[in-house]
Design goal:
This protein has about 90 residues and is mainly β. It has two helices and seven strands. The strands form two sheets. A four-stranded antiparallel beta sheet has the order 1-7-2-5.
Length: about 90
């Protein structure tokens, strides 16, 4: 049985992550950047408008482990951005 989660996130001037209810029990995520650029990190520290991986509107991010989902944080670069997040659980081989 599928174990999916979904949320829409507004990314502003403070770093935000994936909600616990969306990521709990899941270990993969597809994140689509709908509007404006963002920067993100998955190593613990929060990104800033000038530090972290830069992602353009229309691009996608794939996370493939529970720690990445827990540590994912994003921040806008110039204007608020919208992320669409779908999570699921894949059994380890």
């Amino acid at each position: 049985m599928a174990n999916f989660g979904y949320e829409s996130i507004t990314v502003g001037t403070s770093a935000v992550g994936i909600a616990n209810a969306t990521r709990e029990g899941r270990n993969r995520a597809l994140i689509t950047v709908e509007t404006d650029q963002i920067r993100f990190r998955t190593d613990g520290p929060a990104p800033t408008a000038s530090e972290g991986h830069l992602v353009d509107a229309g691009a996608s991010i794939i996370l493939e482990s529970a720690p990445e989902l827990v540590n994912f944080k994003a921040i806008r670069v110039t204007a608020d951005a919208t992320l669409k997040v779908t999570t699921d659980h894949r059994e380890e081989a």
